[in-house]
Recover the amino acids of this structure.
């Protein structure tokens, strides 16, 4: 195709009125293949070979009329003899070619499906380890928070919220801490694997939210929340998805760093200083948890709305008939 | 990247990739309480090991000016059972045993005769609250020198008048800010804060800082199920900050 376009540019100065011919000339190999495909197909399926030959011979002249002048036009920029007649035949040939192409598709690709390997193994692995980890860390974290549900002083203690026990994991503060201190390692490990893979493979480009994605956010949000028109899919993820996924990575990094400060505020005193000290760090840690809690329901609703094939792709990697 | 393939081929490739993911299902073991109890206990043990490796014996915890210290009445009294075990302060002695050259009974005056450290540090509770307090006492390391304690032993164990008990790794115990504390806010410890002697270590969580000390033992062996009152129920043994 690029070749054809370059050739078009070359002949442009000398071919003022040959627009159709140019178009036809740009894809001569395709038309030939298409015609051949049709012939082969008919030879296979038609019970009477003689009829097939006839049909082919009826098309062949049109084909040759189209191809010959076009090729000449390309090969000799000086050729000024491309007439309106040849443009007409070219248009006719295009119609035939389109028909042949349509038939070719049904002939040689009877049961092909479109598919994309969207989620490499490392991504799927870390996604599910993360899903379990975030569930455990949030529920056990709420249990830990229940022991002192405040960000103020101990005296006087003002509880912000009474978190129902049913939403928590661990049974008591000590049990919740055990879950928290176990799954923090899984969460951190899968985060490190995820980020390393994304950046080493270059796969991050599909999901990282960048300033050029900003214009795409509102149309997508309008579609999801206010029944606006659906923007065309241009890649694996739309702008709103990129924003959501990139944000959760941010929440993950924030929760790990603030968690490290709360776990070892003396050993990582410089990090504690960056977050405004141990006391404030508890608030950042809680805020990053809120980020996950905000993300998860939206994520699950979207998964439910987009059906089995989309969900299954996070298990098998392969997505059948992607939209883009 | 879009590919075209036969339906059967797509199914075959999907199945193969799905099977590769099967090991993740092993996380399902956490759904079984017996298995998960053991696993999360091991998780804390691993965390404690890592915390011990990360601990820097000479890295000081942040200290604060007198203006940043919380008022005395806002420093919580905290205990697992009774706040005042009615220690006989007149006849109190600290029993020192284990891997030491001079075991025996030590009076409070022998401890206060050692160099005194005053420090304003943050006291952090495992529950999540924190408060900056003013503490005075003598370094555990100085007391170890006095009693001829073996510093290459692994632990220091303490027992308390309220039957609380604790054990500390030697590196944390010898930290320059780890005190045998007999003063708070410039006054002798009051009964509810652990009179006459408590541990005070800004590199440890509150539950490690036992009050109403009775016995101090230098040892390299901890009895299983007797490593600390809360630790034996599931808290992190290292409990470091």
């Amino acid at each position: 195709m690029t070749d054809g376009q370059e050739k078009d540019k070359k002949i442009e100065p000398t071919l003022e009125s040959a627009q159709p011919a140019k178009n036809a000339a740009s894809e001569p190999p395709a038309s030939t293949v298409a015609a051949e495909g049709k012939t082969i197909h008919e030879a296979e399926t038609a019970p009477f070979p003689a009829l097939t030959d006839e049909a082919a011979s009826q098309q062949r002249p049109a084909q040759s009329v189209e191809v010959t002048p076009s090729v000449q036009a390309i090969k000799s920029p000086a050729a000024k003899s491309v007439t309106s007649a040849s443009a007409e035949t070219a248009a006719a040939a295009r119609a035939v070619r389109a028909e042949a192409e349509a038939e070719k598709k049904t002939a040689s690709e009877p049961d092909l499906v479109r598919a994309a390997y969207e989620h490499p193994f490392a991504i799927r692995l870390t996604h599910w380890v993360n899903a379990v980890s975030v569930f455990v860390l949030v529920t056990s974290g709420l249990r830990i928070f229940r022991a002192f549900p405040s960000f103020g002083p101990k005296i006087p203690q003002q509880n912000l919220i009474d978190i129902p026990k049913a939403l928590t994991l661990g049974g008591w503060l000590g049990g919740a801490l055990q879950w928290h201190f176990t799954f923090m390692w899984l969460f951190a490990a899968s985060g490190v694997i995820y980020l390393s893979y994304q950046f080493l493979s270059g796969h991050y480009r599909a999901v990282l939210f960048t300033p050029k994605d900003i214009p795409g956010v509102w149309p997508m949000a309008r579609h999801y929340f206010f029944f606006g028109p659906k923007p065309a899919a241009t890649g694996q993820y739309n702008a709103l998805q990129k924003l959501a996924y990139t944000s959760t990575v941010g929440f993950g990094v924030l929760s790990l760093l603030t968690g490290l400060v709360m776990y070892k505020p003396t050993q990582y005193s410089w990090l504690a200083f960056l977050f405004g000290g141990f006391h404030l760090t508890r608030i950042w840690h809680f805020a990053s948890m809120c980020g996950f809690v905000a993300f998860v329901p939206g994520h699950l609703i979207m998964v439910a709305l987009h059906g089995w094939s989309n969900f299954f792709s996070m298990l098998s990697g392969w997505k059948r008939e992607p939209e883009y | 990247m879009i590919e075209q393939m036969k339906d059967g081929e797509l199914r075959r490739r999907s199945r193969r990739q799905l099977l590769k993911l099967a090991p993740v299902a092993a996380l399902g073991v956490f759904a079984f309480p017996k298995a998960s109890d053991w696993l999360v206990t091991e998780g804390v043990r691993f965390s404690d090991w890592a915390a011990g490796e990360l601990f820097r014996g000479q890295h000081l915890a942040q200290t604060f000016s007198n203006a940043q210290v919380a008022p005395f009445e806002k420093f919580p009294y905290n205990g697992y059972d009774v706040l005042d075990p009615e220690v006989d302060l007149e006849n109190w002695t600290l029993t020192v045993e284990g891997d030491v050259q001079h075991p025996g009974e030590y009076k409070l005056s022998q401890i206060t005769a050692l160099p005194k450290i005053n420090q304003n540090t943050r006291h952090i509770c495992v529950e999540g609250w924190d408060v900056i307090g003013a503490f005075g006492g003598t370094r555990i390391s100085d007391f170890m020198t006095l009693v001829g304690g073996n510093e290459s032993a692994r632990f220091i164990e303490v027992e308390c008048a309220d039957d609380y008990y604790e054990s500390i790794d030697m590196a944390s115990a010898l930290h320059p800010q780890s005190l045998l504390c007999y003063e708070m806010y410039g006054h002798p410890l009051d009964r509810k804060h652990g009179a006459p002697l408590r541990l005070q270590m800004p590199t440890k969580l509150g539950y490690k800082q036992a009050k109403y000390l009775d016995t101090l033992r230098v040892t390299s062996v901890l009895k299983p199920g007797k490593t600390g009152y809360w630790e034996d129920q599931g808290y992190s043994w290292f409990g470091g900050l």
Observations:
- The mean pLDDT of chain B is 92.
